[in-house]
């Protein structure tokens, strides 16, 4: 799995993503990427040579805000095939307005990675069930 580095996001997010994927026995490689906001969505670019050996690419955005302390207010992670034609999984987090917004960002990123693996397993189960029914 390649992780497309988003240089405008805190460095710890990449480390948390690596740990989250490692938890599921997925090796990662960090590659340089360009994230550009167009039409209220990030368009991403990377050199295809950098993604050689990767089955998929993980992209991410995360925002921090200040309210008594710095906290992660938003995170979005999505995984696409290397050609960027199909989204394999996606998970998001948005902080609430109460004190519960002061979460451990690393733990939340790992939790989002876990949620994406659940999505993939559920999709696989549906596909397998459909194949069996045919």
Structure overview:
Keywords: Lipoprotein. This is Sbal_3080 family lipoprotein. This protein has 134 residues and is an alpha/beta fold. The protein contains two helices and seven strands. It has helices at 12-23, 105-133; strands at residues 2-5, 29-32, 34-38, 41-45, 56-67, 69-81, 87-94. The strands form two sheets. Strands 2-1-5-6-7 form a five-stranded mixed beta sheet, covered by helices on one side. The longest helix has 29 residues, at 105-133. It starts with a strand and ends with a helix.
Features:
single chain; 134 residues; alpha/beta; Double Stranded RNA Binding Domain; 5-stranded mixed sheet; 2 helices; 31% helix
Topology:
Elements: E1 2-5, H1 12-23, E2 29-32, E3 34-38, E4 41-45, E5 56-67, E6 69-81, E7 87-94, H2 105-133
Parallel strand pairs: 1-2, 1-5
Antiparallel strand pairs: 3-4, 5-6, 6-7
Helix pairs in contact: 1-2
Q: Distance between the terminal alpha carbons, to the nearest Å? A: 32 Å
Based on Cα principal axes, name the global outline: globular
**Alpha-beta content class:** alpha/beta
**How large is the radius of gyration?**
16 Å
Characterize the largest beta sheet: strand count, sense, and whether it forms a barrel.
5 strands, mixed
CATH-scheme architecture: 2-Layer Sandwich
- The side-by-side strand order for the widest beta sheet comes to 2-1-5-6-7
Keywords: Lipoprotein
Protein name: Sbal_3080 family lipoprotein
Can you summarize this structure?
Helices cover 31% and strands 38% of the residues. By secondary structure, it is of the alpha/beta class.
């Amino acid at each position: 799995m390649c992780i497309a580095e988003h240089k405008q996001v805190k460095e710890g997010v990449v480390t948390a993503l690596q740990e989250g994927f490692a938890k599921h026995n997925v090796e990662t490689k960090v590659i340089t990427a360009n994230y550009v906001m167009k039409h209220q969505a990030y368009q991403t670019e990377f050199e295809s040579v950098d993604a050689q050996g990767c089955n998929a690419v993980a992209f991410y955005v995360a925002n921090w805000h200040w309210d008594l302390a710095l906290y992660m207010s938003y995170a979005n992670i999505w995984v696409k095939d290397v050609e960027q034609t199909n989204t394999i999984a996606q998970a998001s987090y948005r902080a609430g307005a109460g004190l519960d917004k002061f979460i451990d960002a690393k733990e939340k990123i790992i939790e989002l990675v876990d949620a994406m693996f659940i999505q993939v397993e559920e999709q696989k189960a549906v596909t397998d069930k459909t194949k069996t029914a045919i």
